[in-house]
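Q: What changes when adenosine-5'-triphosphate is included in the input?
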Amino acid sequence: MTDGIRIALRVARGEFRLDVDLALPARGVTAVFGPSGSGKSTLLRAIAGLEPDAAGEVRIGGEVWQDAAQRLPAHRRATGVVFQHTALLPHLSVDGNLRYGWKRAGAPQALLDGWIERLALVPLLARRPDTLSGGERQRVALARALACDPRWLLLDEPLSALDGERRAEILPYLEAVRREAGIPILHVTHAMEEAARLADHLVLMDAGKVVAAGPALDVLNRADLPLALREDAGVVLEARVEARDAHGLLTLHTAAGALHAHGPAHAPGTPLRLRVQARDVSLALHRHDDSSLLNLLPATLLGLDPLPGGQVQARLDATGAPLLARISHRSVERLELRPGMALWAQVKAVALLV
Ligand SMILES: Nc1ncnc2c1ncn2[C@@H]1O[C@H](COP(=O)(O)OP(=O)(O)OP(=O)(O)O)[C@@H](O)[C@H]1O
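A: The predicted holo structure follows.
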């Protein structure tokens, strides 16, 4: 394989063992998602050459960064790394910080200028790092990494030090990076919304091992993974904006049928991702047009999984799209639900992700 990425790495640290073997596409965003302590950062650091004891193999395209015969040091691996708290040089301006690494990398001026422009840094160039907000600092860190012409961008929880509002502000910039960097991006996160919004490919980790890997929506929508047991379990659907009314209500086309959600002024035709959480879906035997709910989807019940605490998670097929619904045990008995039944899924809330 010369055009993809291969990572086969082992790290032993006290009780903890990282042991992964992955083949990834050398394009788009691969999100590495998993609970705290599952080894996400250790994996990223081992790829970057920052874990001295990591054994195994790292190849990107035709380049070998590590195998049984050789192990390139961190500075010879063409990675751009952005951490949760990226250290900028305090005595230099934003411009000085950007030029520092860029000069050493010998990258073209146009590359530096392009990222300053795209990440809207022109008004900040003369400022010192200690006068920047957390989000502005991360934008500088992204530009600094990308201006050095990396082969692979590695992001270690780049948003987790930011509050919700700042995170929402920086997400469009990450999307611009994803569209325009032309290099693969590894994005470590423990935030479901981030993985669901940004990932093309998803690696799910637990206790140092890969639990699942594949196209993001396939992994996110699998009902047999620990994700389906989380409080915020749900599905992610591809959608396209069909219309927006005078009150800002969007009509969205999805494989499951038309869904409505409030959202910003997206032009008709805009592709979006939606997240429908299981706790926002209820089930009915008949179509109720007398309800305030706008989102009613025909669905077939595939199975019922008991959850701790007396709840049941229903797995549904909504005309080809997956859907999960969290209902009470009593509702299962009252409606006499069994696999194969035709039902109506009532969707209370739909979150727009893009
Ligand atoms: N510097 C260190 N020294 C000793 N143990 C460490 C060190 N850093 C991490 N660990 C341990 O290694 C394991 C993996 O940690 P790692 O930071 O890779 O997980 P993570 O999935 O990135 O977690 P988080 O989401 O909390 O950042 C954990 O058991 C952690 O306690």
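Observations recorded in class: The mean pLDDT is 92.
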